[in-house]
Design brief:
single chain, alpha+beta, Aminoglycoside 3'-phosphotransferase, Chain: A, domain 2, two-stranded antiparallel sheet, two-stranded antiparallel ribbon, 6 strands, about 10% strand
């Protein structure tokens, strides 16, 4: 939630939100969300915006409520839940491979259909849709996620894969050490197991994660490779430092090349590494600076 201010977007350091302003924001936000909001906590913001954390009189996390909110405020744009993005990108990969000089293994189409099945509705859970390092605030009460324009219900595995890859759709992606990655994944798993006890089975969990890694790798390949066919470029137009698109692609392909439960797909990734990335003169994806990368 925010309040507009015509002044420059400077960081607020010593401004406390007064009760009348908080009440005005709550009234407006309650009307938009269709639920009663209370207990606002000022999380900061800028001189032209205010971020509040509030409690709701009823859950706004349920699927029907999210669908209602999206229908009212989505401006006709389909949500990720409605958009067949994975079917589109798996088909796109089969089109892209010949253009990259790669002959698709005969079994690849069937495996892509299995990979696409991760988007089915077996273990749905709410997600912001873009759970990346830049989409959060560190507060005295812990980390709070931001940017819900891609919010939807999707397979828990598609969200959990962000911990492993890491950060499947992000521009701020580097190598993440295995220890914090495993801690993040386990914390998320402990939450979703409450709703889906079957996910306590390591076999079920690991298979789902690897299927999701394959799905996100397909999506990244179809989106990024045509953009760097001729020359490399930073993965973000203005932010620095950032890795290059080729660095990220090669990192994704290296991970996906180990998914032996999808042998044709893994072989395709190895072909991409040798025939496409083999001609790239780029260093490996660096680690996050916070971990000494």
């Amino acid at each position: 939630m925010s309040t507009d201010d015509p002044r420059p977007d400077e960081v607020r350091t010593d401004v406390t939100l007064h009760a009348p302003a908080a009440e005005a924001i709550l009234r407006a936000a309650s009307e938009v969300a269709g639920v009663e909001l209370s207990n606002p906590a000022d999380l900061g913001g800028s001189l032209r915006s205010t971020v509040l954390r509030c409690r709701t009189a009823e859950s706004v996390h349920r699927r029907a409520n999210l669908a209602r909110l999206w229908a009212g405020y989505g401006r006709g744009t389909p949500s990720w839940e409605e958009d067949p993005w994975l079917a589109r990108t798996t088909a796109g990969l089969l089109t892209l491979l010949p253009e990259a000089g790669i002959a698709a293994p005969p079994e690849l189409a069937g495996e892509l259909a299995r990979i696409e099945a991760v988007s089915e509705d077996d273990y749905p859970a709410f997600t912001p849709g873009d759970t990346c390092p830049d989409n959060n605030l560190l507060t005295p009460d812990g980390l709070r996620l931001l940017d819900f324009e891609s919010a939807c219900f999707q397979s828990v595995f598609l969200t959990a894969a962000y911990c492993r890859m890491p950060f499947s759709t992000c521009w701020c992606v580097y190598n993440l050490p295995s220890e914090p990655a495993e801690e993040i994944e386990q914390a998320y798993r402990e939450e979703v197991v409450v709703a889906y006890p079957a996910l306590a089975d390591d076999t079920v969990w690991r298979a789902g994660i690897r299927q999701a890694i394959a799905a996100w790798t397909v999506s990244t390949t179809v989106w990024v490779l045509p953009r760097v066919a001729e020359e490399d470029r930073p993965i973000h137009r203005t932010r620095r430092p950032v890795p290059t698109m080729r660095q990220v692609l090669r990192h994704r392909w290296e991970m996906a090349s180990t998914l032996e439960e999808f042998p044709a797909f893994a072989e395709t990734m190895r072909l991409m590494l040798s025939k496409v990335a083999g001609a790239w003169d780029v260093p490996p994806l660096p680690g996050y600076p916070a971990f000494g990368g």
